[in-house]
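Need tokens for this chain, all 123 residues.
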Amino acid sequence: MLTKRLSVGVGLVAGIVMLGVAPASAYQYIALSGTGEARAYNNAAGSTSAYAGAWDSSLDGDAYNPVYNTYYRTASPDTERNLWNKTGAGTLTTSGSGSRLYKMRICESVPLQFDPCSGWKYM
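Here are the structure tokens for all 123 residues:
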């Protein structure tokens, strides 16, 4: 009986600790099936430390078809920015920090064709 209470108590403490950790590691994203994700980190309202990420999840063997995150920041709403990930599948490239991102999408660079892109994610 004491062992069962101890297990429940440890489980509750671990759950509370994880609740405290989860928001720090959270991010917003939009995906393009089989290709990758555009990500936004630290993107709370009024943030000055937000940054973008381009996750390549494709299995094209190498960096043959790189992915890129096209995004806009609130401090310069008319400036399109592109974050390229040319390092291949299973990798993440991140931008420098700045004002909050308000719109982003992920695209895959395909030679001699239009690049397929996700829809826009507005945040």
